[in-house]
Write a structure and sequence with these properties.
Ice-binding_C; 57% strand; PEP-CTERM sorting domain-containing protein; 17% helix; 3 helices
């Protein structure tokens, strides 16, 4: 009988013990994915009241808020020249047919210009349970493009018989003269290289994310199964999504776990009852 009672007590103790297993849970923000947000305050929450166990502990918690620019219209300004430079004329090619000469000179001209497209920077600051949790903003982007053009060739020259002096008489081309026979032609041209830098709108996507280690944030989750959040938006944005990732472990309710002294008294009581039954059976 003692063996049977001991087994019964052990079984009762095991049944009172609670088992727990960690489980990943993802909560979605109360503001719908893809919602447009204007400038100002936007309040929301992660509500886990329907999915979180009644009693649990948090092994880890992290949050992610993803934003995208709403691609508002730009105001494009006029192109402004910001720089200019010109090189020297250089002989690029010559031709002689036994009697006539032809010379081609080319120089490079470089223009730099900018085109401004005005927009606005957009950003957001996040707080969880009233505590600052991070911020982010769109970035200013620029692009650069080059365009090379030729303005054609301008003819400059003369011919005479039976000969003429060949002069280099155009600015930096002056380098002397000599007598030649036949006719000649000089051609001068400019090659333009235009570099245009365009200042684009503040655009792109960004995220505010991090781990939650602040105990006040975790306490709100533990006590109410919810986590309030607030976004202060500068400009206007699209909230792509908001997620709260949790790793939680379910706990048994405190009332369902007896004190060790209670379990001991229960066992002693069962043993006492068994002893009384044995004594009553041994009497004549």
């Amino acid at each position: 009988m003692n063996k049977l009672l001991s087994a019964a007590v052990a079984t009762a103790l095991l049944s009172m013990a609670s088992t727990s297993q960690a489980a990943p849970i993802t909560l979605t923000g109360s503001i719908a994915d893809g919602s447009w947000m204007g400038a100002g305050q936007h309040a929301g929450m992660f509500d886990g009241s329907s999915i979180l166990p009644q009693h649990f502990k948090i092994n880890s918690a992290s949050f992610t808020f993803n934003f995208s620019d709403d691609q508002d219209l730009l105001s494009r300004g006029q192109a402004q020249t910001t720089g200019f430079s010109a090189g020297n004329y250089v002989l690029s090619n010559s031709y002689y047919d036994g009697w006539n000469y032809s010379y081609t000179y080319v120089r490079n001209k470089n223009y730099q210009q900018s085109v401004a497209q005005s927009g606005e920077t957009e950003g957001a600051s996040l707080s969880l349970a009233g505590i600052g949790a991070g911020s982010g903003a769109t970035a200013l982007t620029q692009s650069s493009a080059q365009n090379t053009t030729h303005d054609g060739m301008s003819w400059e020259g003369y011919s005479s018989q039976p000969g003429y002096y060949q002069y280099y008489s155009c600015g930096n081309r002056c380098s002397g003269s000599y007598w030649v026979s036949g006719s000649y032609s000089n051609y001068y041209g400019d090659q333009y290289t235009q570099t245009t830098t365009t200042t684009k709108d503040w655009n792109g996507s960004f995220s505010i994310a991090g781990e939650i280690s602040n105990q006040d944030m975790l306490d709100q989750l533990l006590s109410s199964h919810k986590l309030d959040w607030n976004l202060l938006v500068n400009g206007d944005l699209n909230l792509s999504n908001a997620r709260l990732q949790l790793d939680v472990e379910e706990l048994a309710p405190p009332a369902s776990v007896p004190e060790p002294s209670s379990m001991l008294l229960t066992g002693l009581g069962l043993l006492g009852l068994a002893g009384m039954k044995r004594r009553s059976r041994s009497r004549p």
